[in-house]
Design a protein that fits this description.
The complex is a heterodimer of chains A (about 625) and B (about 250). Chain A has about 625 residues and is α+β, with helices and mostly antiparallel strands. Among the domains of chain A are: about 140 residues, Flavocytochrome C3, Chain A, domain 1, CATH 3.90.700; about 140 residues, Methane Monooxygenase Hydroxylase, Chain G, domain 1 (Up-down Bundle), CATH 1.20.58. Helices cover about 35% and strands about 15% of the residues of chain A. In chain A, the strands form 6 sheets. Chain A has a 5-stranded parallel sheet. A 5-stranded antiparallel sheet of chain A has the order 11-15-14-12-13. In chain A, about 60% of the residues are buried. In chain B, a hairpin with a 2-residue loop joins strand 3 and strand 4. In chain B, the strands form 2 sheets. Chain B has a 5-stranded mixed sheet with strand order 2-1-5-3-4. A two-stranded antiparallel sheet of chain B has the order 6-7. Classes of the chains: A alpha+beta (about 625), B alpha+beta (about 250). Chains A and B meet through helix 3, helix 5, helix 6, helix 11 and helix 12 of A and helix 1, helix 2 and helix 3 of B.
Chain lengths: ~625, ~250
Amino acid sequence: MNLDSRIPGGPIQDKWDSRKFDLKLVNPANKRKYKVLVVGSGLAGAAAAASMAELGYQVECFCYQDSPRRAHSIAAQGGINAAKNYRNDGDSVWRLFYDTVKGGDFRAREANVYRLAQCSVNIIDQAVAQGVPFARDYAGLLDNRSFGGAQVSRTFYARGQTGQQLLLGAYAALSRQIGLGTVKMYNRTEMLDVVLVDGHAKGIIVRDMVTGEVRSHAGDAVVLATGGYGNVFYLSTNAKGCNVTAAWRAHKKGAGFANPCYTQIHPTCIPVSGDHQSKLTLMSESLRNDGRVWIPKKQADKRPAHEIPDDERDYYLERKYPSFGNLAPRDIASRAAKEACDKGLGIGETGLGVYLDFRDAIARLGEPAIKARYGNLFHMYGKITAENPYKQPMRIYPAVHYTMGGLWVDYDLMSSIPGMFVLGEANFSDHGANRLGASALMQGLADGYFVIPYTIGGYLAGQKAGSVDVNHDAFQQTVATVNDRVSKLLSIQGKRTVDHFHKELGKIMWGRCGMARNDAGLNEALKEIPALREEFWQDVRVLGSGQSFNQSLEKAGRVADFLEFGELMCRDALERRESCGGHFRDEWQDEGEARRDDDNFAHAAVWEHKGEVKDAVRHQEELKFDNVALAVRSYK
Amino acid sequence: MKVILHIWRQDKASTNDNFKQDGRMVRYELADVSPDMSFLEMLDVLNENLIEKGEESVAFDHDCREGICGACGVVIDGVPHGPERGTTTCQLHMRSFKDGAEIYIEPWRAKAFPVVRDLVVDRGSLDRIVQSGAFISVNTGAPQDANAIPIPKSDAERAFDAATCIGCGACVAACKNASAMLFVGAKVSHFAYLPQGRVERDSRARNLVKAMDEEGFGNCTNQNECEAVCPKEIPVRVIADMNREYLRAKAREG
């Protein structure tokens, strides 16, 4: 497997400039001859589709939702980082780069992260020009707030719905191109396979989710912007439809999958309330600007929060990490919450929760100020729990939120399949083993607006436009495989529903490959998952037909892929014999703090498919840290 | 708790204007409902039961389940998104209903929203309206610095109030004329208060109104049902904003 990251030479500040200059250009008159297929319409996909269409390429864009505006980027609440230094508090491109490399626990690729920090400033300019209504101060200038893992105020926000506002900006740009006829949009259309011709990605096979038609689309390049795989845990903050299918199908066709074990468990989510639970809801990290996290000092203290005096409360983040306090990075805050609950200090009926308390901030600033900052989040919390967070502290617990791992890409965001590019959460490169808050929106948009429009030209310039059409044998064969799989799922007619299997898989993943992992548990999971997968293929019940709108069938296909992917995740977690970022191994710790092993694991693990998941081969891309010295990550 | 559900079932996409021929209401009983369940989780439980009995599940749109993607939305006892104000269907919880309640569940009904299956409708008409001009025509590139144009906080807040629209279509479903004016007004108002949006204000107002009419949405007769059901509580003043922008554009046509 070719894992040449193709990072340009020279000082890190000049790498992106020199690559942009070295990339071949496609003549403006020739651009319209090339067709690019973009799968996914979130921040990365919509930004990429719109930007490439503006350049003159023909673009086809696909999303499983009924409108591109609904992609899950929309649910991001807190904000987007940018090194604007509008606060005059010492921020810079270099500091954002440094914070992100350190925040990722030294498992990200330096050159990519530096480019991300450089692009961050353009994103804010672009979004404001599109009409994104960021929060402003009374002088009419843009406001900022702080997020975890940073000591400067660089997060731009739009009330508690920064994701929706940025996505509406990208969706508006995309809609403009659809209206102009330069992007052809396919809603309610799911990618089920990728088509390779002479080793290059030249098309995709999709299923029209309304009619059931399985169809081929040919293009000169394929761009996957299909999000993360957090739903392998069943319960996560992801939308119900988020899935790994596109990435997994690409992996099975030869794309390396990097660091699948890196999953982010977000510290502030609403705790699970019962077996019926279908998803988990995040409470934005921005709440930790004003909320204080605590637990009672006594075990099983059943007094209501307000009756517990201050000296009987443990503000454990402030105690353990005095310089970052409640704004410790996500992996560290999550682990601290788990540790507290493991010791029997958790709160609420289940004991799986900690308090996030606004009492002091309300006393200091008044309720109206808190309402102005977090009103919609407090409202949402009230709706879900029937509790009033202005009067009693929120109950929170960690939940699966984001996946740092993803398809391996080189510096140009091309996967190990030539002609297949991967953007946003679906790729692996920028967040290492832990993503800092407010960095996901930044990465999705940087990839879509400012990286792929350049790098795709470098690839297309070497390709003959329109060299393959859907009559090519490769398309016919792949359509047949996809149809067979659909028929197979419908023909089993077993006893158990798709959700049953998904929930069972989720329990295995959360128990064995969740916030803490160990050798014994992962080995158990590697027996349990294949057994569950076998049971699925013998006993799943999918009713209805393939030629109609069939939500059970859609889910079945996705869960079938999760049942394979979960095994790879556990293998990756088992082989990574160290603790870093979101990947915590019980065996490698210093009193609850992750112990990295830079001598043996300062690399990205890249898996190559070989027929069965158990046979997948692990490759390594060594990571070099020339600009940020490898050090123990301390937030104390 | 226990509930009795009456749900619109429809196998095939709508074919004609007489929707009563396309499907029918079906009665289901559901026991062991927890008051902490969301409305959609209650439907999940129903669907699991149906599949176990060998019946196809009830199709409904949903995705983020946290009230922001705008995918979900059904008419509950005659009210889009149900009895709680400012709440999407996914954020509605069963504690809002009485034990033993009979609940009637239907899809959005509007000429411009044909039913796809059961409770799922096609809202592509809203996308097409946006494509006609609900954007600022700026290419990706190097615009001026984000702080180069200060925007008064009050204007930014007004723009934001309109921009919170999640495109669910409840406003259309609530309106006896199936008017999309709250939706279109929200788009117009969002850009009208921003200096970046003012360059194209005339063409935007004209194009959006034209597209809205062509899609078969009705007109506004000031009943304000749309505002009452909007999960983001977008005020009807955005319709006034739209009318103002439209009249201004018409007056300036030479």
